[in-house]
Model the fold of this input.
Amino acid sequence: MKAMGSTIVTNLKNWLQHEVLPFWAAEGRDPATGLFLERFRPDRSPDRDAPLRVRVQFRQIYCFAHAAVLGWFPEGAALALRGWEATQDKFWDKANGGFLHILGADQRVLDGRRDSYDHAFAILALSWLVRATGEPHLRKTLDELLAYIDARLMDENGILREGDPHSLPRRQNPQMHWFEAMLALHDAAAHPQALERAARHRRFFEATLFDRATGTLGEYFTEDWRPAPGAEGQSVEPGHQAEWTWLLRSHERLAGLP
Done:
């Protein structure tokens, strides 16, 4: 069984290194804008009419930066840096601050909200980009982005609002990805505030998001963090329970907890 597991991991790593990462590096970017493409058609041709979500840009930046750190795709650091610069140029709201949620393929703003979920992924991507490139100006950008999120997207208790503008229901998902981002902020960027911020969100998970009576994780909540009325308040997503399990164990490892 152990040998079978080792073979699966080796095959997966080879697939990522030799097929997935080269494909997205070569065909997954728009050379005109520098942005990563949103999707492909079944024949592998790019769908250049698809709207562009900023979170997809951050996820791709993170993947290439982390792959470069692992030595799986050394050219990923430069590719991720170009992606970050293009995303800042196209998605950052220069008048009001924050990253816009969705642009059209023609660069028109389709959804101008500044979503907290997106900004959690921005911190994740930028933390690993700092590690992959060693660029000093990116660390300054990281601190500036944290300050923006603290001022515009956080409640006074340090828990994320839904975004700017704020909306209901409140979701656990941005909180989960913020916790993930704080772990990356520590692991990749060695930021002095990261573990304190992560611990705050772990306490929030344990006190508010996790229902100990049922062993389940809530998804949608009211303004005061009670389960949302109706079916939304009963919603449980197994994938998110798995993600939290992985993140909680990662936090224990990084923070030296039992």
Observations:
- Residues 40 and 47 are 5 Å apart (CA to CA).
- The mean pLDDT is 96.
